[in-house]
Each structure stands twice: as C-alpha cells, then as structure tokens.
Amino acid sequence: MTQVLAAGAAQEKQTRPAPRRRRRGGLVNLLYAPALLLFAVFTVYPLLRGVGLSFTNWDGYSPDQAFVGMANYLRLLTDSTFHAVLLNTLIYGVGSTIIQQILGLALAVALDRPTRSRSVARAIIYLPVLVSPVIMGTMYYLLFQYNDGTFNDIMVALGGPRTAWLSNPGVATAIIVVVNSLQFTGISMIIYLAGLQSIPGEYYEASSLDGATGWKQFTNITVPLLQPAFAASIVLNLIGGLKLFDVIKVLTAGGPGYSTNSVSTLISVAYFDDQTAGYASAMGVVLFALIIVVSLSVNAALNRRRLEA
C-alpha cells in the first residue's frame, strides 16, 4: 500500500508543471512582443487608418477632412477608368502567374537532373529576383524605348521601321506581364525544385518496372505529388501580380493615358496628382479585399483538388 501511494505521489509530481518551466515559457512569449509591436505599428495601424480615410474627402495634405460615408465607394462603382484599371490588374495577376508556373516548372524539371552546371544555372535564373523591380524596369525600358531602344536599333539596322512598343496599350500591357514574369520565375522554380526533391525515387523506379516512362511518369507521379508546391507558387505569384507597381511606373508610367495602370499605380495618381487621398484609400481597400478574396479562393480550390486527388 505504501508503495502504491509513493508511486502515485511520484507520478503527480512528474505531471505537475515546474514553476521554472512556466517562467521560461512566459519569458519566451515575452520575446514575441517587439515583433508584434512592429507588426501592429507598421501593418495593422496603417490598414485601419486607410480604411478610416476611405470614408473621408481628405486631400492628402491639409489637416481638414470631412466624413463622406460611402461616397468614395459609390464613385468607384461608376468610375469607368477604375473599371478598366481593375481589369488590367487582373490581367497582370493572372497572366504573370500562368507564365511563371509554366517557366518555373519547366526549369525546375530541367535543373533537377544531376548535371555539372545545374547549381550555376539555378543561381543565374534566380538572380533577377534579387534585383530591384525599378532597375529591372529601367533595363527593359532601354530595350523597348522608341528612340535609341535596342530592339528598334536592330530593326532599323535590318531595314525595318521603328515601333512605338510602349505607346500601344495592348503591346505595353503584354510587355509588363512578360517583364514581371521573367523577373520572378526564379521563385516558382525554387518552389518546384523543393517539391521535386521531396518525391521519393522509388515511385519512379516502380513505375519504370510497369513500363511507364517520360510523360506518363510526369503526369501520373510528378504533377499529383506537386500539388502543395502548385498551391504555394500560384498564390504567391498571384498576390505579387495583383499589386504590381514598380515595373509599370518605370516602363509606361501608366500610359498612354490610363491604359496600362494597375490599381496600385492608379492609387498613387489619385493621391499625389489628383490630391484625392480619401478616394485613393477606397481604392486601396478594394485592392486589399480583392487580393484576400482571390488568394483565399484559389488556395481553397487547389487544396480541395489536392484532397480529392
């Protein structure tokens, strides 16, 4: 009986949390405070402040502002320029995402094979991600500008006419999509490389014994097992494309007219040029909501497809 009581007391003592361990856990939680404070100051507060300003007629400079209710949002519903720019934003987001997935997956498959120079090739492809979008946009502007542009100089040397690449709305929009895609293809490549390297080689060996090679292995083994990588890459690229700003500002400044603006660049025009900060804030809230809805919807659809597979 005494042994049973002693064993019970010992077990209770082991399960009882030690005061020192509790203090240590509290100290670790306290270390989160600076990060949470920075997040609140530089993310949560600006977001809430922007939502509040969207209900005012503030011009962005004067201390005077009046509450106008839903007037800015009602104006967005009838603003044809905003509707066109919203379509552009979806084109930038969806177009860049599609191109980046195709190029990123193709490069990942090619560079997953054991070759002598694959590490150098991976670094070269990923290098543009580290370059500022402003610098990248400037580089491509030097290629596509009308006077002294590299492509036009080549065309003139071959006897052809100069082309106003960036003055044509359709062509300029396509160039922006391609430039953004080429810069950030490295991100998709790295995500897909990580996914490919996590697939056990036994699957490919077993399928080879069954006579499956090449395209059959890719469609029946690689693609299904890359579903988590697809979800991560598509959502990240989609968010980046929907909030595209720097490349547009450098290449076309939103022109000609408003034809190549994204919502992000139109916000800067409304705030700094038109001095309608309240209206610009309403655009920002709509863009934030659009990114949240699209990213969550796409992520949910991809996860649902993964579970069904």
Concise account of the structure shown:
The chain has 309 residues and is mostly helical. It has 15 helices and no strands.
Account of the 3D structure:
With 309 residues, the protein is mainly α. 74% of the residues lie in helices and 0% in strands. The protein is built from 15 helices and no strands. The chain has helices at 2-15, 19-30, 33-53, 71-78, 80-111, 118-126, 133-144, 150-157, 169-197, 201-209, 215-225, 227-242, 246-251, 263-273, 277-308. Helix 5 packs antiparallel against helix 12 (227-242). The mean pLDDT is 88.
Sequence-ordered SSE layout with sheet pairings:
Elements: H1 2-15, H2 19-30, H3 33-53, H4 71-78, H5 80-111, H6 118-126, H7 133-144, H8 150-157, H9 169-197, H10 201-209, H11 215-225, H12 227-242, H13 246-251, H14 263-273, H15 277-308
